[in-house]
Amino acid sequence: MGISLRIPGLVRLMVVKRPDEMLAVNAAAGVDRPLSGRGGLFNRSMAAKLQVFRTADGEIWPAFCSRNDAGRMRRSKEVAETLTDIPAKLQSIRGEIAELAAYVRGNPTARSAGVIVQQAVGKLFFADYRASEESFDAAQTLSIWLRALPLRTRLLRRSGKVQAAVDEVLRQARQDTACAHGTGLALHNIVKSVELMRKLARSESRLKRLSPAEAVALTLRGPPSVVREARDRVREEKLRARERSIVLMAVETARKRSSDPGIAFFTGQWNECPAHAFVPALLAEVWKTASA
Description:
Number of helices: 14
Largest sheet: 5 strands, mixed
Order of helices and strands: EEHEHHHHHHHHHHHEEEEHH
CATH architecture: Orthogonal Bundle
Distance between the termini: 47 Å
CATH class: Mainly Alpha
C-alpha cells in the first residue's frame, strides 16, 4: 500500500495515490491532521511549516485542526449550512461570475482571475469582502510556502513574507479562520479550474457544444496533496503505516483515477469540504454564463 520511505533521523513518510488507499488512510482512527514533528528532520520541518496557520490568539486554521476538534466541527457545519441554498449564494456573487465568464471567453478583465475568485469566495462569508492584487499575492505566497522545498522555505521564513501573508489574509477575513482558509488556500483549486475553462473555451465550438456539467467534469481540480500523520502504528486492511509517519495524500492524482469527483472534496468523510456541492455549481454557472 502506498510508497513508504524511512531513513532513521531524517524521515518517516508514506505517499498514497490510489483513491481507495487515500480514503482508507483518511478514515483510519490513528491518522490525524496535526503534525507532532517526531520521526526525523523532514517531519520536524513539515510540522514547523504548518505552525504559521493560526491567528494571533492561537486559533488554528480548519485545514490543520484535529479530526476531533469541536470548534472545527462546529464551524464546518455552520459554513456548510450557509452554502445550502446554492442559487441564492450564486446570486450574491453574480457580478464576480460575470467577470469570470468574460475571462473564460478570453475577454479583457479589469482584475486577474485570482482576485475575482478570491473576492467571490470572501463574499460567501462577508457580503462586503473586497479582494485586491495585494490580498491575492498573499494567498499566492501561502500556496508557495506549502509546497516549497527546504531552501526556499528558509528564505521565505527569513524574509518575513510568510507571516505577512498570513496576517494579510486573516485581516481581510476579519480573523475568521474558515474565511481565511477559503480565501488563502482553497481558492487556488477554483482558480486552476477557471484557467482550464479559459483554455477549453478557446475553441468556439467547445464553448457552445459542451454543457456546464461536461465542462466542470473536464476542469474540476482538487488540491495537489494534503498531509496527515500516523500518530501510532496503524495496521488495517488497506493501510500499514509506522508510528509518527507523515502521510502525504496525492488528492488530485487520486481524483483523476476515481470515477467519483467528490473525492477531491472528501465528500462524505469526516473532513468533508463544506463547499463540496457549491464549487461545482459555481464552475457550472461560470461556463453557462460564458457560453450564453
